[in-house]
Design brief:
Elements lengths: L9 H6 L5 E5 L6 H7 L11 E6 L3 H4 L4 H9 L5 E3 L4 E4 L5 E6 L16 E4 L7 H8 L11 E6 L6 H5 L20 E6 L2 E5 L2 H8 L7 E7 L6 H6 L2 H7 L3 H7 L20 E3 L6 E9 L15 E9 L4 E9 L3 H19 L3 E6 L3 H13 L4 E6 L4 H13 L3 E4 L4 H10 L7 H15 L4 H4 L1
Parallel strand pairs: 1-7, 1-10, 2-5, 2-6, 6-7, 11-17, 12-15, 14-17, 15-16
Antiparallel strand pairs: 3-4, 4-5, 8-9, 8-10, 12-13, 13-14
Helix pairs in contact: 2-4, 13-15
């Protein structure tokens, strides 16, 4: 006999909720994906039943250990057939089916015009727009005998429309879920694009003179990694990984804070760094990363973006040290001269230094990166495509800084560097932060070059 069941607590509460719309999560590791995949099984013997489970991007469905891999683990023992075509489908012996699809753009929802979907699931609801969610509600209908309903999972995002939608369940002062409200039903109706809430459908019906049947019930069920005993036992290191995140991400993904958002001082503070005058241990990898801006100071542009670079090393003891930071307002020709002279000086002092050059998207970015790599022929050069937000790029470096793993070599540049770090991400300039983030990524992933630089 195959037995699949939710864990006691929030996961069980989510799978037993009578709400038209139930949203589950609030932090990482709470067993959200597993719960979402269990939900359709209650209808697996209904030949007319169909469910669509959405992710925003197709790659999120097929990522290693993601939705599709988990679906196979859960559904294969039940005799399911797996269709690997796009969109991917699971078909049970009864004919009931599960479709895994993505909504990469807002207009992708129109591919569901005329569709009837008894159960609609959104994995990571904050990744979807409110327009996508609202439109798909109109496709949530059924003739197979299953009352139409919606299930969704999410992690906190203070700027998401989801944060507004579930605000009643969240303490607006602290950002944390209100325990006694978790799982409670409320009712809403949308009129002229605005959502109105009440404790009962009759209240809404009386206030807006509509039928109670036009009102939908919704709930939010909060969970955390501490509710997922199976994960804590199978992978106790995951909790350590969440603890190692930067302050903002730890508040979101470990503590479920819906109000935390990036702000100056939350990523870097100068007292997080230890200033040293000599290397405290042997270097095992070293890199200088550049953030390029071919601009000079003029009367019309008295404070332009600067070309910045950061020389960072990983030490044998596992810590990181920032050896040098440059920030200059130069024209394109002078930038190129600075890069060559700096590479020569770095090699003379630290030998096998990796020079990291950013590559902007598009052909112009590729051409510039290739030209600079050619200019630095004879040095160890790598290029990387700039992707993601500046905050996303800075997160890994910030996490190490916040855990006391970063030092700074004393130098005249220290003050300007600390000033910019403490102002991130609200300050006008972030050239040095970008350079430091990329340098950290390079040395953190680099091989051990001890033999080459000793």
């Amino acid at each position: 006999m195959i037995e699949l069941r939710p864990q006691q607590g929030p996961q069980e509460q989510f799978l037993s909720s009578p709400a038209d719309i139930a949203i589950y999560g609030g932090s990482a590791g709470g067993g959200k994906t597993y719960a979402l995949l269990l939900e359709p099984l209650r209808h697996m013997d209904n030949p007319g039943f169909g469910v669509v489970i959405f992710r925003r991007d197709s790659g999120q469905i097929t990522n290693e250990g993601g939705l599709w891999d988990n679906a196979k683990d859960i559904y294969r023992p039940l005799g399911a057939t797996f269709m690997e075509s796009a969109p991917k489908r699971v078909i049970f012996p009864s004919g009931a089916k599960i479709t895994f699809n993505h909504l990469h753009t807002d207009d992708a929802v129109y591919g569901y015009q005329g569709a009837q979907v008894a159960l609609i699931c959104f994995d990571e609801l904050t990744h979807f727009s409110e327009k996508q969610f609202t439109y798909m509600l109109s496709r949530n209908r059924s003739t197979c005998g299953v009352r139409p309903y919606v299930r969704a999972t999410c992690n906190p995002d203070s700027d998401s429309w989801v944060a507004r939608f579930i605000s009643w369940w969240i303490d607006q002062d602290t950002g944390y879920a209100i325990p006694e409200r978790s799982g409670l039903l409320r009712y809403f109706i949308r009129i002229d694009g605005e959502i109105h809430w009440a404790d009962t459908p009759d209240e809404l019906a009386a206030e807006f003179r509509v039928s109670p049947e036009l009102c939908k019930s919704a709930t939010f069920i909060s969970s955390s990694i501490f509710d997922n005993k199976v994960l804590l036992k199978a992978d106790p290191g995951y909790l350590a990984s969440l603890n190692a995140l930067s302050l903002v991400e730890k508040e979101r993904l470990l503590r479920g804070n819906w109000k935390i958002r990036p702000a100056a001082g939350l990523y870097f503070k100068r007292d997080m760094f230890r200033i040293v005058h000599d290397l405290p241990d042997k270097i095992v990898s070293v890199a200088r990363a550049w953030d390029l801006a071919a601009t000079t100071i003029t009367p019309n542009r008295p404070d332009p973006d600067r070309t910045a670079s950061c020389l960072m090393a990983r030490l044998r003891n596992g810590q990181y040290i920032i050896l040098d930071v440059q920030r200059r307002a130069l024209n394109a020709s002078d930038v190129r001269a600075l890069m060559v002279n700096t590479a020569m000086a770095d090699r003379a002092q630290y030998k096998n230094v990796q020079t990291v050059i950013p590559q902007d998207p598009g052909q112009a970015g590729k051409d510039q990166a290739a030209s600079l790599a050619s200019l630095l022929a004879g040095f160890r050069v790598s290029t990387h495509t700039v992707t993601g937000s500046k905050i996303t790029r800075a997160e890994p470096f910030a996490a190490q800084v916040q855990h006391g793993a970063a030092m700074v070599m004393a130098g005249a540049w220290n003050q300007a560097f600390f000033d910019e770090l403490e102002g991130f991400p609200d300050a006008l300039h972030d050239d040095q932060v970008d350079a430091a983030s990329d340098a950290f990524k390079a040395v953190a992933r680099s091989h051990d070059w001890t033999a080459l630089i000793s």
